[in-house]
Design brief:
Layout: H1 3-22, E1 26-31, H2 35-46, E2 50-56, H3 62-69, E3 76-78, H4 81-87, E4 92-95, H5 102-111, E5 115-119, H6 126-139, E6 143-146, H7 153-164, E7 170-178, H8 191-194, H9 198-201, H10 203-213, E8 219-227, H11 239-244, E9 250-257, E10 261-268, E11 279-283, E12 286-290, E13 304-310, E14 313-319, H12 326-342, H13 351-370, E15 374-375
Parallel strand pairs: 1-2, 1-4, 2-3, 4-5, 5-6, 7-10
Antiparallel strand pairs: 7-11, 8-9, 8-15, 9-10, 11-12, 12-13, 13-14
Bound molecules: nicotinamide-adenine-dinucleotide.
Length: 381
Amino acid sequence: MSDTDRVLSSFTQEIREERVYSDRKLRVGIIGTGWIAEAHTESYLKQPDVEIVAMADLIPGKAEKFAARYGVTGCNLYPDHKSMLDNEKLDAVSVCTYNTQHAVCTIDALNAGINVLLEKPMTATVEEAADIIRAEKASGKLLSIGFQPRMDANMKQIKKIVESGALGKIYYIQTGGGRRRGIPNSTFIEKKTAGIGALGDIGCYSLDMVLNAVGYPRPLTASGYTSNFFGTSTEYQKPEDAARFDVDDFAAAFIRLEGGLVLDFRISWAMHLDTPGDTVMLGTKGALRIPSTECWNGSVGGPMTLYYDLAGEQVETVIPILDEDESGLFDKKIRSFLDAIIFKLPPPVPSNQILYNQAIINAIADSAALGREVEVKIPEV
Ligand SMILES: NC(=O)c1ccc[n+]([C@@H]2O[C@H](COP(=O)([O-])OP(=O)(O)OC[C@H]3O[C@@H](n4cnc5c(N)ncnc54)[C@H](O)[C@@H]3O)[C@@H](O)[C@H]2O)c1
């Protein structure tokens, strides 16, 4: 923990206690009561200065069952996000819907003057991400995107190593990760709900790990490939899941970024290989190897190695893993969002960075469909 972090966390703890006893609690609503809403709800329930006052879900009876399961009594329940926003006075919402509903729910909430914590990936399309940012700017409210790996000490260490100058000028990054077998089902495997497959679901994390470290340079072009041999096969999927599977389960791309940096990317929900490779950053003074990760649990896959020359010799330093409680990452994501609202801090994960993440994802999908390199479209916001 840096000195600033230490001071800030002791400061926010003091104020938090004050608010609990001397001010009203923040009124929070949950939009979409599916799987990830569980983690949001569990974290909000641990916060002393928050009350969950409303929940909404399109599926009849789902929000009711969800609220009962968590003992959130006295919470108002709604059949969709709009009726909740129209009828409640809220300070903040968590948007926990599937990807194709992210934009409409986030824009409606911002237009209603409510702060938003939006789950990843930001949206299904880059145009939607731009629409969200326009609504964010017009509203003056806080929007943070739900990348909890950003809270992980090892992820922060990668950024610190880059910023220390130990790698010199970084010119090549290889990143990605994923699984030999691990296709989610439910709403993740159809275009109408997910919009994109592994590329959006876990690809967004791999991209964020390295792009955040190097300061999110503007992406310029992408040459992408996507496939779904496993997702559509009854050899690996239940017939009903194979029949509705119409997103990617594997993607690879070569991306050019401003400043002469290139990014070699690959991501997998399923393949006949244990890992698509470690993350590697090559610089003029050194290189960093980050062991491959499954991308969902928010940390790196093992100790990192720094390669450099010292007194004429080629040497390596192993950077030990910093202990991090996985469940704690989600609590940090929720708490940092709340603290940013209370203390008017910048969003923990700002939308203008994730716009580039989304633009790359979309360019990879477009390039794969066209079978050639494309310019990365970044709408004006
Ligand atoms: N941060 C993480 O670690 C993490 C992990 C898993 C999923 N996610 C993300 O969370 C999101 C949701 O995933 P999930 O697995 O919970 O999906 P899910 O399908 O289980 O739940 C989504 C719920 O949203 C509801 N919904 C959709 N539109 C709505 C609307 N307009 N108003 C009210 N309810 C609406 C659906 O009926 C559904 O019940 C996805 O974007 C996913 O990528 C993040």
